[in-house]
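Model it.
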Amino acid sequence: MTLLLTTPGDPAPWLKALKTHMPQRKVHLWGQTDAATLAQIPYALVWRPPADFFDGLAGLKAIFNLGAGVDALLTHPALPANVPIVRIVDGGMAAQMADYALYGVLHVHRHFDTLADQQKRCVWADPGICEPAETRVGILGLGALGLGVIEKLRPFGFPLSGWSRSLRAIEGVQTYAGAESLPAFLATCDVLIVLLPLTDDTRNLLSAERLALLPEGASLINLARGALVDEAALLDRLNSGALRFALLDVFHTEPLPQDHPFWSHSRVILTPHASAATLPGPAIAQIAANIAAFERGEPMVGVVDRARGY
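Modeled.
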């Protein structure tokens, strides 16, 4: 059985992982495969496939997305309608995201934003240290990545809460579910960590009205998708001081335009969509297990519900 591959960047690490985990499979790179071969390929491994990627793939049985987020794939104009899409559930990203989130929380908790501002102004003043119990952390999205962040933060003693579409019980975490509980959840978040998938329901979820529900002086960490947040409203809240700080890894437009106010904003640290990357080894191991399950007639892990968008 053969595979068709298009990757984020250099395909060499992916080819190495495929040789390790699926040595019996022949791998074809997109753009280097003739039409007759394309028509026989049952599995495609993709990341942001080109517009004509699916042309000629008449025998396609499953599409494996090389990442957790499938919003870009689901809007592909030629996406086959009846072929299952399978996302990477973790692929090494949970630990990376958790480290990034921990950095953001500690940046706020230990007043490094205040200290950085004081350094620019040559001010020598100790902002003091507060108890962990005084920094309430909320995780918006309780999938694999959100749970990884919770486990990373748990030993530090911060009060933890989480919101998801349907109610989840997590030891030591106050959980909320559904749109009706979102205001109550946001009101508990001194630091809000955004880890939701981008869907029609979550686009601009953090509107001006909902950002205003955060406590005065709260901070925002967005590791998911830029379009979850109303950027103009976020800027307004930062400019007014109602929001203390934002750590942003994702944006409505990427790369972020050079004239965007986030670049130079004193209350913002930004990174270029670099909080986590899918690791080829764990990702291909998961895909190999899913293909084996599929060929045995068993369920695969991470099958996307197209109606929900994840």
